[in-house]
Amino acid sequence: MLVVCSKFEDTKHIKQNTYKKRGIEMPAIPKKKKSMSGSINILGYKERDYHIAHCLEFDLVSQGATRKEARDNLASLIFSYLRFAIENNIEQFTYHPAPKIYWG
After folding, report:
1. 17 belongs to a structural domain
2. Which structural domain, as residue segments, surrounds residue 16?
3. Which of 16, 35, 53, 82 fits a disulfide with 74 by CB distance 3.0 to 4.6 angstroms?
4. DSSP state of 69
């Protein structure tokens, strides 16, 4: 299992609303009265020359040259995914689990 922490490298429309955590730039969650909490399962494995990080609850996948890069890329993707859901009031549609084959 990988621990999620993010390196935010997304486009300029989100870049302006970021903050730093442990020296890593992360997207800021909108200051609404909504919040989401909980834990997620991350499956990490190596495929050819890449490390893969797979968030099982949302079926989001990223890759990187190292485990850390794959994990950081996935964290950025998860933050962007949830931020979009919160901003557009569609949190109820965010849970989209990976196929059962990945759940071990």
Report:
1. yes
2. 12-29+40-102
3. 53
4. H
State the DSSP string of 35-53.
-------EEEEEETTEEEE
Examine residue 7 and state whether it is found in any structural domain, yes or no: no
Among candidate residues 25, 69, 24, the one with its CA nearest the CA of residue 51:
69
**The whole model's pTM is what?**
0.65
**SS3 call for 86:** helix
Number of separate domains in the chain: 1
On whether residue 75 sits in a domain, the answer given is yes
Residue 75, both tokens: 């964290």
Cβ–Cβ < 8 Å for 27, 83: yes
pLDDT in tens, 30-41: 555 566 678 899
User: Which residue reads 């050819």 in tokens?
Assistant: 48
